[in-house]
Amino acid sequence: MSQVVFVKTKLLKPIFFLIFLNFICLKAFGQNEDYESIVGKSYGDRHMFLFHNFHTQYKIEVDSAAYFKKVKKLSEVARKANDKELELEAEFLKYIFLSSRNYSKYLPEMNSLLKKVDSEQATQLQARVRQAIGFHYLYEKNNYGEAYIYLNESYPYLQQLSAKELPDKQELLYNIGYINYMIGYDAKALKFLEEAQRLDNNYYSTLECNIINTQGLIYEQSEHFDQAIKSFNQLLKVSSDNKKDIWVRVAKNNIANVLITQKKYDQALTFLNGNPQLNANDSEEIGIVIARKLMLLGKVYNAQEKWIQLSEVTPELEELLKKYNIPLKIRKEIYRLLAVDKQKKENFREAYFYKDSALILATDYFKIKNDQGLKQTLEKERIQELLKEQLKTEHQQRVTLITRVSLIVILLLIITLSIVLFIRQKEKFKKKRLEVEFELSESKAKLADLLGELKSKDREVQAYEDELEQLYQNIDKDEIQINETQKTLEALLSKPIMTENKWLVFKRSFDRVNPGYFEKLQQEIPNISPAEIRFMYLRKLNLTPKEIAYVLGISQGSIRQYKHRIRTKINADSQDKLDKFLDSI
């Protein structure tokens, strides 16, 4: 993605991941558990009941026995009333709980559930179960292809349902738009996002911000800057109206970034110098947002050559770099600004360090593509926001709640970091393997070029020899023409195909295709000379003595001398033994 979204990617999962968002609803506790009250009703009518009883109660989320006890009770009530759709809903609730708990049978059992849902033609479950499987592939398996298939397959079922029948339809549409955006189908992504934006959502307060922001990022990525600014301004208005300060800052950062891209620096400053004033001590996510704001401010000052103002920003950036795990894309830009600042202060040693670090980070950044772990790391801000809401409702369990949520966040960070490191190493290995394969292919091509030149010269020599033969057989011999042809042939034979420069290129190519051959020659043949090494390299290509002479521009007598010297060095008493020995190397 060309633009950083400071909303943790995990929170963009569909409704089945809302078990982690247990603090959205302030009425979670004390909710009536009269399961008979939802028997025979549509999903639209029972949605909030299920939401309150299974998705927002922290107590049952951390106690699997309590959770499954409630699910079992719901399933028994549904079975007794012969409400097949509610029974399937209860089974789905079980897998919602297991989705991110490394349950090894999750996918086969979910696909089995999908067959039952399709058989019953329970439309809302046909959409939601497909999305749940898709997001499991995306976030647990890192399989974008399967995720894309399942999420897009849910769309025909969404089209059949109104928002009243499917209250979380807006979120499900957004999920499809988001997976299209992640894969790079921007036009399709915009289509789904616009459709989602037309719907109302009354239980997920930041979803509208996610939708508008993603639209802006798509426009910016495709360089439709006017439309991008329009979307980000809309985000600014919505987040301001709803008093979402973190989203206000994200919107202003995004607007400023587009303006900087267009070199409209003065306009960008108006968005970087204004409110809201966020406190970086509140959370790491807010610290990252502030770091991005200061980085953009530094870019403006650098472009305007306002070195004093730049020097006022850089100490804060250095402090934030020490304190937070700043994303790679922002960090490389910060290092560039620090390098400029240090250079202006004539601190050339640190300037060189930051400049070199920026180059390294830039290289690493462009190696990371579709890095799921990195996206997830940048999504924690909404967790912190929802955590604050939950803390207001959990007065009696405040200390326990903070401790448990902190452990979950730390665990997620550890898992995310492990994924990032694994993917990075995998990408490095893959790139190295491709480089080796390319070099090997290139080397083989160069060897083939040499053989092509050899064949060409052989044909040319043969043509001159045939011409001489005809001249000698001619009764009226033309001595002058014979002499000229003879001289041309001798010059051609004495002109080597393998010049010194070509030899260096050839040797590098040969060594790549035949690793270790040079070292083995030195071990097996004592005091082997450079000329003998060239002979052995060409012999390894199965060239005849005549062809080797063409390549080196020497006589075949010289070739015989090479072989004789090598035979002497290895004490071979016959030509056959010499040939067998050389073939064995």
UniProtKB/TrEMBL annotation:
This is Uncharacterized protein. The chain crosses the membrane at residues 401-423. Residues 440-495 form a coiled coil. GO terms for molecular function: DNA binding. The keyword Transmembrane helix applies. It comes from Moheibacter sediminis. TPR repeats lie at residues 209-242. One of its GO terms (biological process) is regulation of DNA-templated transcription. The lineage of its organism: Bacteria, Pseudomonadati, Bacteroidota, Flavobacteriia, Flavobacteriales. InterPro entries: Sig_transdc_resp-reg_C-effctor, TPR-like_helical_dom_sf, TPR_rpt, WH-like_DNA-bd_sf. It comes from the Bacteria. Keywords: Coiled coil, Membrane, TPR repeat, Transmembrane, Transmembrane helix. SMART domains: TPR.
